[in-house]
Each structure stands twice: as C-alpha cells, then as structure tokens.
C-alpha cells in the first residue's frame, strides 16, 4: 500500500474482531515511533464523541499527518508530515471505537448496540488480541489516552486492563500508572462552571463582570435559578462576550460555517460543530459528484474547520478506502441505532 509510504510513515492498518462471537470489527491505524519502536512507549488513543473517527486524532490532534489546507480543487486532498506528532517518541494505536465509528462496524443489529461499559470491554478484547498478533510490543510501557467524551472511557479501560491482568488474562499488558486525557468530558456541571473562570483568566471577560457573576451566582453558572435575575443577566452578558470566540480553540478565527450547510450532500461533512467528524457508514456516491462539492461553498482554507471538509472528501474517496482495506460488507447499519455515527451522518 502506498497511501502513506511516500510520507515515510511506518504504519499498520487493519481490522480486529471482538464482541460476543466476533461480530464487531474494529478498525485501527498503528503508527510506529520514529525514535525507537522497540523501547518507546505504546499508547492507544481513543477519540471522543462517542462515535468520532480516530482519524480526528490521527489528522487533527497528535498524529504524524495533516492536510495541507490548500484550496480544494476536486482531487484527493494532499497530506503532509507534521512537526509535532507524538509518534516521534511513541508508538500509537488509533482505534475506531465503538462500532459505527469511522470504518468500524457491527455485523448484526444486536452487536451494533453499545454502551460505555460494552465499549470498555471491547477495547480490552481488542488490545489482548492485538498483542497476540504483535508480541514484539508486549514489553513496551503501555498507556491509554484520549480526548473529549473519552474522558469517560479511558479511566474505565485502564481499570479493566489492570483487573484483567490481576485475574491472569493473557497476554499480560504492561499497563503503566495513570492515563492521558485532553479536554475530557467528565462532570458536566463542573466543566460548565469552570468555563466562566477560564474565560476570565484568558481575558475574554472583564474583572468587573467576573466578580459580579461570582457574587450574584455564588460560583454556580449551570442550571441557574431563573428567579435569580442578577445572575441570569450576568450570564447573558457573559455569553454575549464570548459569542464571537471559537470555543474549540480561542486563538483561532471563529469562522461562520453554518451557511455552507445548505446544498451540502450527505456524503460530505456536517460541521455545524467540530464534533461532526465521523465517517459515513455507506458512501456509494462519489464525493466529487456531489452537488455540495462547489469549492465556493466551502469556508476559506484559513479556517481550521476547512480541514473537516477535506477529511470527508479524503476518507470517503473509494481509492482511499481500497488502499486502507476498508471492508465493503457493512451498509445501512445506522438504521438500528441513532447513536451510530451521530445518526449516521458523516465525518
């Protein structure tokens, strides 16, 4: 396969069967460390959602590749090496989990039903199966990491692996203490409250407004009592102050992209929020033939969200899928469950 070879990335891309009777096929990308793959740590990276493709981590977070961000011309969007990849010092598994995320799929309706507990168990199954096939990495220090909704999954995976090791499950996984989480979803009330203090520390709201909110809301900015007019008015002013900020990354421009949704085909990305990053399970149409594929309808390349469009063109390209070994067996599974890829939408 030459999809990444010209970029000098050492990788493995495959499916692993898990579930009660092997009725779930989990897709993964494995990138070997650029430094010392035999001794460097091994990490599994779990993208949030739930249901987001691991291509998000691979292409937008800590992976070795990224889109060039050139103007889209209807051809396959080009990739380039990044200078900040964690794979410079670690081996990383990017796993598409649960089934319905990215190219992963379930073979039956029952297998497509998922939960946090079921996902955690399947990830443990995946890892022990993977280590059987790749025993050369069994002694590497192993870590679990993720972002967003994976804040609820990663700690459970670490615990599940540790308990499995204690019970003598094989192969034993060299799990290390702790885990890695980026911007994790943990406790909604706590996270919502901290947004106000974060906005203040970043200079997005004034000292006067922050002190007023603390005084009138008592430090509680979530599910506010509607009869508390002073607190409600203060929060209204707070939301007005941050309304033009790109909340995913306050240093990046806040591109207004909702307007491009009109006329965008379902084979292309819905990026009303940056979380619409999953792969559509069935993409029979050529994205380049879609009516929404007018470059003039895309956000400018200077917008970070522009790369989400490129990722959908890239990941839904039949040549890419063929090169990655994506199986054609799955189709229309999202009719079973609305959790599947955010109601079966695309990247």
UniProtKB/TrEMBL annotation:
It comes from the Eukaryota. Residues 276-291 have a biased composition (Basic and acidic residues). Pfam families: Peptidase_S10. Residues 274-298 are annotated as: Disordered. Belongs to the peptidase S10 family. This is Serine carboxypeptidase-like 19.
């Amino acid at each position: 396969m030459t999809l990444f070879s010209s970029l000098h990335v050492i990788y493995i891309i495959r499916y692993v069967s898990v579930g009660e009777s092997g009725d779930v096929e989990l897709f993964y990308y494995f990138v070997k460390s650029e430094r010392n793959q035999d001794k460097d740590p091994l990490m599994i990276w779990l993208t949030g959602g739930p249901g987001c493709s691991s291509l998000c981590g691979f292409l937008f977070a800590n992976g070795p590749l990224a889109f060039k961000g050139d103007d889209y011309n209807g051809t396959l969007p080009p990739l380039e090496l990044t200078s900040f990849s964690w794979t410079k010092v670690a081996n990383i598994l990017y796993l598409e989990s649960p089934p319905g995320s990215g190219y992963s799929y379930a073979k039956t309706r029952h297998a497509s039903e998922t939960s946090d507990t079921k996902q955690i168990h399947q990830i443990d199954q995946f890892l022990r199966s993977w280590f059987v096939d790749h025993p050369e990495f069994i002694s590497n220090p192993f870590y679990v990491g993720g972002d967003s909704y994976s804040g609820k999954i990663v700690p459970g995976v670490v615990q599940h692996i540790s308990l499995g090791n204690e019970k003598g499950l094989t192969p034993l996984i060299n799990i290390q203490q702790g885990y890695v989480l980026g911007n994790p979803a943990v406790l909604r009330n706590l996270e919502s409250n901290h947004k106000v203090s974060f906005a203040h520390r970043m200079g997005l709201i004034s000292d006067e407004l922050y002190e007023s909110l603390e005084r009138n809301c008592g430090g509680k900015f979530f599910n506010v009592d509607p009869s508390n007019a002073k607190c409600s008015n203060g929060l209204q002013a707070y939301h007005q102050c941050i309304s033009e900020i790109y909340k995913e990354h306050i240093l990046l421009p806040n591109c207004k992209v909702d307007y491009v949704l009109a006329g965008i085909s379902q084979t292309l990305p819905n990026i009303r929020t940056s979380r619409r990053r999953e792969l559509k399970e069935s993409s029979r149409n050529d994205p380049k033939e879609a009516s929404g594929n007018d470059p003039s309808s895309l956000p400018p390349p200077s917008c970070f969200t522009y790369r989400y469009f490129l990722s959908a063109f890239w990941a839904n390209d039949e040549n890419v899928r063929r090169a990655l070994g994506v199986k054609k067996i799955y189709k229309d599974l999202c009719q079973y469950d609305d959790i599947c890829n955010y109601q079966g939408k695309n990247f």
